[in-house]
Amino acid sequence: MFKIILELIIFILSFVGTITLIFEFIKEYEDIKSKFLDWRDRECKIKCLCNHSYSINYLWYRDKEVCLKCPKCNKVKRIQLDDKTFETFCEVWKEECKNR
Ligand SMILES: [Zn+2]
Prior knowledge:
This protein is α+β, with helices and mostly antiparallel strands and 100 residues long. It has helices spanning 2-43, 83-99; strands at residues 55-60, 65-69, 76-80. It has a three-stranded antiparallel β-sheet, covered by helices on one side. The longest helix has 42 residues, at 2-43. Zinc ion is lined by residues 50, 52, 70, 72-73, 75.
């Protein structure tokens, strides 16, 4: 009889342990997820920009820079690009000019 009770207690304890572990895991996952979202929203974003969408204002071919402008609050940001990215921006920019 005592052995059965002991086994039952062990079973309950391991069951509770497993549940706790799962909850711990979910909590950890949520933590990491929210940390990542935080990072994506705050730190990975180019500093000093607002949360509105930006449009290409100018392209400086000489410096390989793009000037982005927020139409809503008129914030302007110059960003230096690598060759390949700059080419992509040029393509987009040309298309945009055509459509104006
Ligand atoms: Zn803005």
